[in-house]
Amino acid sequence: MVIQLIARNFNCFASEVENPTGLKCMLSEEDWDHLLEVLPTDMPLQLSVYIPDSYYWKRACRERWKKSICELNDGSWKQFYMERSCQEVIECLRPSQMKRFHASSYGDTWDKYVKRLIIDQLIVEYIPGSKQCEHQSGSEEEEEDDNKCGEFGFINLGIILGHLKNMEELHIRYGAKNCGLDFEWVKFHVRKEDMNYLAETIPHIRNLRILKIHHSSITDDVCYNLWSTLLSYKPLEET
């Protein structure tokens, strides 16, 4: 009964002893193992990150995702969970949401565990005023010009990837997946700015060994700065 009570109010008990690691010291090994079996798997990541790799993380993975895709090849279940949750957040983000997105709180949680990140899609969105135009005088006219001078683009990946300093392998696909009848070429067009975001971030990921960009519409002139960065980035082994 006590373990069930702790499980239902885990965030309260954990905060009283600073984090769940301290709570572990207060329980017997048998009680701690039992607690990991009954803890809810939908707790905030900022809290559950303190739980050491255990059956809890295997259960969390299989409850959140289909069992068929939860096959652990290497690493740990905790690492698998962190990498998949990071992937899902990035794949659902839109450029218009980035100002409200608290990258540091997520990044600090993921940093230690995300070693291999596979981004299967990046959502494109119209970004007003992203191109340089000559504005006419008058606020209404300027706002109109901003809309006309906009273009489609992706999120600034650097805002998130810059926090993942222990990442070793990165796969990216610029564009939406499963478009179906909504297919448009503009959803796959990569701007020079999108490549520049990546080029500026890579030097800050000190352990990156593999970088692959898959099925993306990228021209030579767009990725010039990225190639220049990669040529001087010594840890990289494969692109």
Give a brief description.
By secondary structure, this protein is mainly alpha-helical. The chain contains twelve helices and five strands.
Task: Detail the topology: elements first, then pairings.
Layout (H helix, E strand, L loop, with lengths): L1 H7 L1 H7 L3 H6 L3 H10 L6 H4 L6 H10 L12 H16 L10 H8 L5 E4 L5 E3 L11 H10 L2 E3 L4 H4 L7 E4 L19 H10 L8 E4 L10 H8 L8
Parallel strand pairs: 1-4, 4-5
Antiparallel strand pairs: 2-3
Q: What are the key terms here?
A:
12 helices; two-stranded antiparallel sheet; 239 residues; mainly alpha; three-stranded parallel β-sheet; T-complex-associated testis-expressed protein 1
Fold and architecture overview:
It comes from Cacopsylla melanoneura. With 239 residues, the chain is mostly helical. 42% of the residues lie in helices and 8% in strands. It has twelve helices and five strands. The chain has helices at 2-8, 10-16, 20-25, 29-38, 45-48, 55-64, 77-92, 103-110, 139-148, 158-161, 192-201, 224-231; strands at 116-119, 125-127, 151-153, 169-172, 210-213. It has a three-stranded parallel sheet. Strand 4 (169-172), helix 11 (192-201) and strand 5 (210-213) form a beta-alpha-beta unit. Helix 1 packs across helix 2 (10-16).
Overall pLDDT score: 80
Identify low-pLDDT runs.
none
Secondary-structure element sequence? HHHHHHHHEEHEHEHEH
Q: Helical content, roughly?
A: 40-55%
Q: How is the largest sheet built, in terms of strand order?
A: 1-4-5
